[in-house]
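Entry 14. Ran structure prediction on the chain below.
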Amino acid sequence: RDDDTLPPRLLSEPLSDGAVSGTALTRHELDVMIGGYYAVRGWTEDGLVPIGVVHAMEMSDLLLDMPGA
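Output, structure tokens:
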């Protein structure tokens, strides 16, 4: 999950124009969006893909010597 982020600039500089001019995306808002993305995909809160999801997607051949695979 630590790798799923945006460059610091996008979380600190407000937008300069458009309907949301003057606002910036907060780290909390990004975390909520990332959590929602994981949930929709059926992943863990840490962004890991459970073995059951891998099997359901018929991608088991991508698993290499993993316990429980």
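The CA atoms of residues 11 and 28 lie 10 Å apart. Will compare against last week's run tomorrow.
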